[in-house]
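#structure-requests
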Amino acid sequence: MTAATTARPLGGAGGTGGGPARPVTVVVDSTSDIPLALRESLGMVVVPLTVQFGEESFRDGVDLDQAAFLARLTSAAALPTTSQPPTTSFEDAFRRAIDGGRDVLCVTIAAGLSGTANAARLAAEAVAPERIRVVETGTVSMGAGWVAVTAARAARSGATLAEATAAADAAIPRCRVFAVLETLEYLQKGGRIGRASQMIGSMLSIKPILGIHSGAVHPVERVRTWRKAIDRLAALAEDEAPLDGLAVMHVGNERDARALADRLAHLTPDGTVVVNELGPVVATYAGPGCVGVAPLLAG
């Protein structure tokens, strides 16, 4: 599959002046779906998007746990709406890091899927453009997550802001995201269907496999049964080997996700596969039952 778009630094250069190099904090938006333990181990900061059911608003991954979200999603008369974080949320996160003597690298969801990158850029300009960079990944979930993790690992090893940004840039073409959906209904209703619209009208038994790159959702192929779709998802991940990392994501389908992770563990250097549930914002469009893979190609 074609790689994601090249990262675009949307904020100021930062960290390029004289004097000693400052440590770097990596900020991500909540659609990166990075597991809590991994985020905390790398000192990453998360700025949540918002999910709204009618008049009720919830911060993604903060105010509504996944079980409660899925119960609402499957019973609601209308699909919830989602929105980018307020610029002030990014400003608060950036200021805390800057006031602590750190530079900031912010890694975001694709601009074609959300206005989040623009909100982060505006916040960077308002806070300290010379010390903040914003990298828009062209992808979502652990595709963006691997970009952020790569940058955060570089920062933990002493990378400057410019070096951590370069690490993020280099990771983008190494990231892939593939997913199989139980139905296209949620993606269509949410207006994020993109080129996958050509799959609408297929037989109900058809399971769509989609890829996310270049800021949009793209059709990969159609498979007739769920089991064959999972097999094809495994093959897509295997085709990308050798890998430096692999994540398996799901929406209320841990059984299939864990089985797929066990099946693909041989692809990673240490046999570890990240398994995580998609947060409410991404799950709103993926729908219940979705399973996805996010390979990080060897660099």
